[in-house]
Amino acid sequence: MSRAQDPPRGFFPFGNPFRMLSPKGSALSPWLLSLLNGFELLLAERIKKLMPKSKDDILTLSWMKLAMESLCETHNNINTLITDLQLPVSDWEEKWVDVYLDVSVKLLDLCNAFSSELTRLNQGDLYLKCVLHSLQSGSGEKYLQARSSLDSWRQHVNANNARVGNCRAVLDSLVKTLSLPKVKNSPKGKVLMRAFYGVKVQTVYICSVFTAAWSDSTKDLFDLTVSDKPLWAKVFTDMQSVVNAEIRDMVSSGRSTILKELESVDASVEKLYPMIQDGVDPVEDETFGDYVMELGMQAEKLSHGLDQLLAEVDSFFKMTLSGRDVLLCNLRSSDSFSGSNAAGEHVE
User: What is the reported pTM?
Assistant: First the structure.
């Protein structure tokens, strides 16, 4: 946390990009303004798509998949902007590079944590398959096995994941512990930093929502205060307000989980569990077959959604890793070129 006497830090590690964007005597050219506005308008449209049509859409796997797709598109766009700015890595200040590499490592850590949780939850599908197989057998002994499998499923999905528990510290470090001095005499750098600010805000917020979903805790949910100058600021603030309010309502209601598809499976399990008792044939209950079918449908929906979200997280991981590799390769090439020039000048 910052000391009480310190001014509040922004959410981009390079300091306040807006104070730096328009200092006296350094107005951006129409071309640079066009590039910046184009980037911010695209980001605004992307964030607008994350505004849920109804509260029931919040923290569904389909919404989370859309959010991760949005992150991938934003990170792709920043790479395009760097190309359009004609700002090669060799022109980057050293501290820019250090911050980029540090931030990308933390994003890789978050991706690994999310992937581990998605994989862990999906492994619970094996227990549900055993349950369905046992319930369809019509045997009293199999019913007891089904109840045991349901107990195992509950224990499995309610277990804590230490990697998810570490996500908040990673997110805090992204927000609070990164800083970089102002960029001077570089209009292109100022545009890049303001664009990076938007990338940073969207990335930190979405990752905080994911962390809250896995932990079932609003302590991991961020309320980001952003400058009102970017073209995406209002839609982001509106989206964040709606999503955060609903997540807090879900947690305060005492639900077993705030992930919608997982909650639906849990509700089906709650219906079936009392019907599988010693010496009782659940087949005699006319609702038994419907409940078994419902569990199968909800389990399939959960497994499919987890698979799709895992694929998107993996895509984001690969994109982040690829970006690091490209940056490092460019740095090595730049160093080699500089070394060759220095050697040539020495010979002369």
Answer: 0.84
d(CA 34, CA 43): 14
Question: Which residues, at least 6 apart from 319, have a Cβ–Cβ distance to it below 8 Å?
Answer: 72, 75, 76
Q: CB-based contacts of 203: which residues, under 8 Å, 6+ apart? A: 71, 74, 75, 107, 174
> In sequence order, which ranges of the chain are alpha helices (DSSP H)?
17-21, 30-49, 61-84, 94-123, 125-135, 140-158, 162-165, 167-176, 187-215, 233-252, 260-272, 288-347
Q: Residue holding tokens 């955060």? A: 244
Reading phi first (left if > 0) and then psi (alpha if -120 to 50, else beta), residue 225 is in beta
Cα gap 28→190, rounded to integer Å: 9
Instruction: Write the single-letter amino acid at 176.
Output: K
Taking each helix axis from N to C terminus, what angle separates 30-49 and 233-252, rounded to the nearest 10 degrees? 20
Cβ pair 71, 317 in contact under 8 A: no
CA distance 83 to 78: 9
CA distance linking residue 20 with residue 23, whole number of Å: 6
- Chain-centre distance of CA 201, in angstroms? 11
**Cα Rg of the chain, angstroms:** 25
Per-10-residue mean pLDDT, the chain, length 348: 39 42 60 95 97 90 96 92 80 74 90 96 94 81 87 93 93 71 73 86 94 89 89 96 94 85 94 75 75 94 97 95 81 56 42
Backbone φ and ψ for 144, nearest 5 degrees, come out as -65, -40
Distance CA 296, CA 298 (A): 6
Give the separation between CA 258 and CA 216, rounded to whole angstroms.
6
For residues 65 and 132, give the distance between their C-alpha atoms in angstroms, rounded to a whole number. 28
- Can you tell me the distance from the alpha carbon of 103 to that of 106, in angstroms, rounded to the nearest whole number? 5
Q: Which two tokens stand for residue 85?
A: 């700015």
N residues, the chain: 348
C-alpha 24: how far from chain center: 37
Task: Give CA 296 to chain center in angstroms.
Answer: 29
